Amino acid sequence: xxxxxxxxxxxxxxxxxxxEAARVIKPGGDFLLILVGNDAWTRFAYGxxxxxxxxxxxxxxxxRAREASFEVIEQGASPTTIFFLLxxxxxxx
Length: 93
What we know:
The chain is an alpha+beta fold. Helices cover 34% and strands 26% of the residues. The chain has one domain. Strand 3 (71-78) and strand 4 (81-87) form a beta hairpin. The two termini are 27 Å apart.
């Protein structure tokens, strides 16, 4: 699980972190990714304070998770938060 942390390491760092998570999680294992959601409500309520993740939205994170070989099992959002339940596919061998 990563909660409100991976968005601190920048775009390339996020790619590397997701790739490493996919490497160490057993096949069929799950990874919960929780991030600060840079939605309009969050920007209004907190201003730039919580914008450390830049303007990356759910689509960007889902694409990076798939690039790291995760399956996106579920995703959702609430004010200030987006989450992804990711799964490392079982190997075919």
